[in-house]
């Protein structure tokens, strides 16, 4: 059987696999986690609306009826293109997987633009660990503020800074504002959550700048109505435990804040750069690989690169965005190309992305939608947002529970998932200090054998 190896269980990898369900292939899926992540809703986990299970169904459950798939846990570290082998590091074990066709859809990581130390104090929004850490930090900030008596300390704990005014940052700022002004008032004896400051910072001059001037202006107005302070044309130049340093049109400023969220910039994982070096392919500054029109690596028709890892322009010369629809359509296209090859049919026409529009929610019952020439905002856009996100939530159970939790949060004032633990707040940094226990155990075993 033709061996297809898929790296990554995001939208690109998952839809490629599903499209190969009845194809005469053996598929091996390599993924660093045991779940498929619906990343656009991570901010709702971070702000207590949804649980992590509702946006991250187990891969094995999603693919349990597809018999030609072998799911393997691990991180692809290197691709031997000469021998067609993927080298993988699993928990405490290294292994290799051979392929005839390779689909690389490993997603993106958070980019701090060369300032990786910022991550210690301003977590990103790229995985479940990030979302749970932020949930603990956000709800914990109100709890700790309630214990303090010094007004300056209280202000620092009740100041939330979100860096990046794209969809993720805008949605995050809006939900923290709703927490402070709708959900939490009346629950604390010593502080008024409504006095919390939510500051949205971006180096560019517009909120949701890819949505066009009209929707950008409407989104900015809605954020102001929510009480969010929007600082545009503002560059972050430093982040530490107790605040953030910025360069504004007014000059250098420091914002005292104990809770910072980083939602600005993405980059391809190290695997993409290694693949580019191995194949001689070009990569952009973010590490994305320039692919051919059929989504393959130049000179390597057996390797497809999808989603956030690829750099490809549309027919108008515009680079395709790193959104779910690009990955989904790319996954289906790659699967179709593989089936054509196996059946001896001509190669499909060059990949053409069909833009189904962009959506971002600002607050309950308020969103913006850019769909073709249609521009909507407010409640109609919010209804479209709900419908689209329900459509792409994998699994009937996930859709039902999401609707129930949305009802609690949007129709009422509650949050279904407010539990936050000390482990969630500090485990990531502890692991970084202590190291990977599986890797340490593996190395110790090797030393004993020697």
UniProtKB/TrEMBL annotation:
Domain (FAD/NAD(P)-binding) ranges: 3-331
InterPro entries per the UniProt record, alphabetical: FAD/NAD-bd_sf, FAD/NAD-binding_dom, NDH-2
Keyword Protein transport included in the entry's annotation: no
EC category name: oxidoreductase
Short name of any one Pfam family annotated for the protein: Pyr_redox_2
Transmembrane regions listed in the UniProt entry: 379-396
Keyword Nucleotidyltransferase among UniProt keywords: no
EC number: 1.6.5.9
One MF term in the entry's GO annotations: NADH dehydrogenase (quinone) (non-electrogenic) activity
Keywords from the UniProt entry: FAD, Flavoprotein, Membrane, NAD, Oxidoreductase, Transmembrane, Transmembrane helix
Reactions catalysed, as given in the entry: a quinone + NADH + H(+) = a quinol + NAD(+)
Family: Belongs to the NADH dehydrogenase family.
Protein's name in the database: NADH:ubiquinone reductase (non-electrogenic)
